[in-house]
């Protein structure tokens, strides 16, 4: 089962300890084969809205910084509970904030 884990931007400034803990976490997940992709996201984006035959294209950013998704990880695990546990471990490393875990359907 694949899950997309996203995290919203935070006002906290990362320190060396956070970088070390996150590097170890990413290394562990990569070695186990659970981590398929990870990355940060720019606050800008392009919104496409369709209505009938018309498609409107608008440049972003679109939300307040605190609402924007700042990063993601795509993981492959056996159960939803495993995905939640990885999310818990991530939140313990990065501290206060918000993440969302969604199952990815298809290949």
Automatic annotation (TrEMBL):
- Chain ranges passing through the membrane: none
Write down the superkingdom of origin: Bacteria
YCII-related domain span: 1-89
Task: Note the InterPro entries from the entry.
Answer: Dimeric_a/b-barrel, YCII
Instruction: Kindly give the Pfam families that the UniProt entry links to this protein.
Output: YCII
Q: Which PANTHER family match?
A: BLL7171 PROTEIN-RELATED
The family annotation for this protein states: Belongs to the YciI family.
Protein name stated in the entry? YCII-related domain-containing protein
Q: What lineage does UniProt assign to this protein's organism? A: Bacteria, Bacillati, Actinomycetota, Actinomycetes, Kitasatosporales
């Amino acid at each position: 089962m694949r899950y997309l884990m996203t995290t919203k931007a935070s006002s906290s400034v990362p320190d060396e300890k956070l970088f070390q803990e996150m590097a170890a976490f990413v290394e562990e997940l990569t070695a186990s084969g659970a981590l398929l992709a990870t990355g940060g996201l720019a606050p800008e984006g392009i919104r496409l809205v369709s209505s009938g035959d018309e498609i409107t294209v608008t440049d972003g950013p679109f939300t307040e910084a605190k609402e924007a998704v700042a990063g993601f990880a795509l993981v492959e695990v056996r159960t939803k509970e495993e995905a939640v546990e990885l999310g818990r471990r991530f939140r313990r490393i990065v501290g206060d904030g918000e993440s969302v875990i969604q199952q990815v359907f298809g290949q």
